[in-house]
Amino acid sequence: MTTAIHPKTKFDDLFIKEGLNGQDAYFQAIDQTKKLISDVSAQTRGPFCGETPQMIQRAVKEMKLAAEKGQPLETVLEDVETLLLHGIQVNHKACIGHLHCPPLIPALAAEMVISAANQSLDSWDQSSSATYLEQELINWICSRLGLGNTADGTFTSGGTQSNYMGLLLARDSFCQQQWNWNVQKKGLPPEASRLRILCSEAAHFTVKKSASQLGLGEDAVIQVSTDCHQRMSLGDLKEKLRILKADNLLPFALVGTCGTTDFGSIDPLDQMAEAAKENSLWFHVDAAYGGALMLSHNDVHRLKGIERADSITADFHKLFFQPISCGAFLLKDRRHFQHISYHADYLNPEQDDEEGLIHLVNKSVQTTRRFDALKLFMSLRTVGLERFGDMIDHTIQVARETAQLMQESRLFTVINGEPELNAVVFRYEPPFLKNNCDAFNKQIHSELLHGGRVLLAKTVYEGELYLKFTLLNPRVTMEDMKKLIADIVELGDNIHRREGKPS
Ligand SMILES: *Cc1c(COP(=O)(O)O)cnc(C)c1O
Prior knowledge:
This protein is of the alpha/beta class. Helix content is 41%, strand content 12%.
C-alpha cells in the first residue's frame, strides 16, 4: 500500500503508522514513560524500598489487570510507578548482590529500536538486514575468541539456553558417531543410560537441568571436585574418567566454567581441552560470566584454552552490561547445527538456502526471536572497545582491592582473597563473635536489604553461610567500598549490642 493519503481507522491511536506524523501517538507514549522513569529516579533512595514481601504483594494484587474500557496510559503508568518503586533499583550503586548488571545507555536506546521495529530473527523475510547484522556480530565474537573459520553461533536468551544447546549438540553428535544413531529422528538410543557429562562441583546448576531435560537425568552429571580456588581439579578429573571407564559408562562431554557464579573462578581451560581431546569428549565452556574477559585489556590471556572449545556460552546481560535478555551460543564446527535444524514449508523451505536467503531459525532452539544483537552492536560502537575493556578491568580491580582491604582488617573471612573476576565471598567475623556466625551474617544481610540500603547476595560455602559482593557496576569505586565495609562493621556492632550476650 503506497497511497499517499491514509484513511483514518478506528485503531490508529494504537499503532505506529506510515507517513508524516505517523509516530505521534508513539512519541506521546514515550514522553509519558520518560516522565515516569524520571519520577521514579527522583524518589529512589537505595537499591530496594525495604517494604515487606506481604506489603509488596498486596500493592500488586490491588492493581486492576485488565479494563473493559481502556484507560489513558498516564493512569496505567501510576501503577507502573508503584511497581518500579517496589522493585529492585539495578542502576543504584549499592545493588551489588547478583550477576545482575546496570544496563548501558546505548543498549537502552537500542531496546527502543528493537521493540518498535520488532524484527524476528527466525526467517529472512521477518528480519532481512537484522539477520545479516546478527550473523556479522556472531562472526566477530567467534573470531575474538579465536574459534577459527568453521565457527558459527546464534544469539540466545541467556546462559541457560546456551548451556542446554551445547549439551544437546554434544549428545546428538556423540550418538551419531558412536552408533550412527540420529537422536533428532529416533529419540534416545537404548544405550543412553550409560551417557555421562563431567563438570566441576562449582559449575552452574543448568548443567544438571540440561541433562534432565535432555533425557539423560541429573545423575548423568558427574561432579569433579575443585581446588582451593574453586577451579576444577585436574587430578580428580583424571580419576573420575578412570572410574567411569572402569564402570563401562560413556562420558561424552566435559563442561569447563569460565567464571563460576559464586566466585568467578576460571577452570584450567587449556588443560581441560587437552583432557577432552585425549578422551574424545565434547568440550563445552560455560563463559556466561567470564566470557567478558574477551574485552579486557589486562586479563584477556586468562581465557587461554577457550579457543579449543567445541562450544561456548557467553552472556551479554552480565559483564557486557546489556539489558536482559542477551546471550550467545558459539560453535566451533558449524556443521553440528544440523542436529537441530528443521525445515518448515511456511518458514524456511530448503530451496531458500540455494537462493542465499539465510534463516537463523536453523541454528536456534527458539523460533520467534528478538533482535538482541542490535543492543550489543550499538553498545560496542558507542562505548568503544577501549572503554569497554577499561570498565571490565576497573570492576576486577575494585574486587581485588576490596578483598585485600577486608582481609587486612582481620574482621572478615574472605574465601576468594584474590578474586579472578569481580565477585567477593566473605563474612563478618569480629573477635567478639563466639558462635552463631551464620545467623549473625544473615541478620546483616537482611537488615541491609530491608533497610533499603544495600543489596548483597547470600551463598553457602562448605555448609556455612557467606555474603557476596558482585561488583558489576563500573561506577562503584574503592571509596564506595570502604564506606560500605565500614557500614557493615557498624551494623554488625549494633546488632551485637542489641542482641549481644553470646549464649
Ligand atoms: C548466569 C549463569 C548462567 C545462566 O545464564 P542465564 O543468562 O541466567 O540463563 C549459566 N552459567 C553461569 C556460569 C552463569 O553465571
